[in-house]
From TrEMBL:
Cellular location(s): Cell membrane
Residue ranges occupied by any G-protein coupled receptors family 1 profile domain in the UniProt entry: 37-273
The keyword Secreted belongs to this UniProt entry's keyword annotation: no
Classification of source organism: Eukaryota, Metazoa, Cnidaria, Anthozoa, Hexacorallia
Listed GO MF terms: G protein-coupled receptor activity
Major subcellular site: membrane
Name recorded for this polypeptide: G-protein coupled receptors family 1 profile domain-containing protein
Length: 298
């Protein structure tokens, strides 16, 4: 118990019960959606050999992290909120630690994967014909393993304040890197679009500009949704750490609201995939057809 006290874990809710119950319901529903949709993404990848390309391998990594959020973080967060409502301090202590550590691990995995996806799109634009030679499925699997190993160190910020500060700085650098790369990509795409008629034949053949622009827009949606869901959390957390003059009940409500928003991101990503990526949508539909045929097979 002393460990929890030392870590400043709050054992009691300072908000209305109705708000807490609503948060539990929203997280529970979002958890189910995240698990089902991301499992469908994973299953579609496993059952569709043609999707085992560098770009889709990275999307698979993001889907696995999002599945982890839906399967672990959100159920534990619901249990934590319920324990606080009932005043179960030992349960609150355990669930808080699990929620904090798993959030750091999976959050790090998500941001690292999104950064890898952004770098992948940047390389497509700048390597042209050399892209398929240098960026292979094997190297993407290697990148996925490296991301997984680095993400494990996300346990440390959940346990040590100094590690949390360092991780926060690393997150900021990665966010900035994504913004810079996306700005460069957007500028280059605009330049290519403006000069499309004067480009050399080799360049036109090496880059399917309309298709590439669509994939870049998809990354914009993924990164934009990620930013909108993640950024409010550290802002509210900073206000709490700074002991601001904002009423404690308001800070509690803001933290629960922003945490819920962050967790909902895991249910939004697969929606973006199916909406924006036709190959993945078609593969999922074909998977359902195959399952249906097996089910009705005499």
């Amino acid at each position: 118990m002393s460990n929890c006290t030392a870590s400043n874990i709050e054992f009691k809710l300072r908000i209305g019960t109705t708000f807490a119950v609503l948060s539990i319901v929203v997280n529970a529903c979002s958890s189910i959606v995240a698990c089902v949709l991301n499992f469908l993404i994973i299953l579609t990848f496993v059952k569709t050999p043609s999707m085992r390309t560098p770009s889709y391998i990275l999307i698979l990594c993001l889907a696995i992290a999002d599945f982890g959020v839906g399967a672990v973080v959100q159920p534990v967060y619901c249990a934590e909120l319920f324990a606080k409502m009932k005043g179960y301090e030992s349960v609150t202590c355990t669930t808080s630690y699990i929620r904090i550590c798993s959030s750091w691990v999976l959050g790090a995995s998500s941001l690292l994967t999104i950064t890898a996806i952004t770098i992948d799109r940047f390389l497509v634009l700048h390597l042209h014909l050399r892209y398929q030679e240098l960026v292979t499925a094997k190297r993407s699997y290697t990148a996925a393993i490296v991301i997984a190993i680095l993400s494990i160190f996300g346990i440390l910020p959940g346990l040590f304040y100094v590690a949390a500060m360092i991780a926060g700085c690393c997150f900021s650098v990665l966010f900035l890197l994504n913004i810079v790369l996306m700005a460069k990509i957007s500028r280059e795409v605009s330049k290519h679009s403006a000069n499309i008629h004067s480009q050399e034949q080799a360049v036109r053949e090496s880059l399917n500009l309309p298709r590439y622009k669509k994939t870049v827009n998809t990354v914009h949606y993924i990164m934009g949704t990620f930013s909108a869901c993640y950024i409010p959390v550290p802002i509210v957390a900073s206000l709490i750490v700074a002991n601001s003059k904002v009423p404690e009940s308001s800070l509690d409500a803001a933290f629960i609201l922003t945490s819920t928003l962050w967790l909902i991101n895991s249910a939004l990503n697969p929606v973006i995939y199916f909406w924006r990526i036709q190959d993945m949508r078609n593969a999922a539909v074909q998977l359902f057809r195959n399952i249906r045929c097996l089910h009705y097979e005499p």
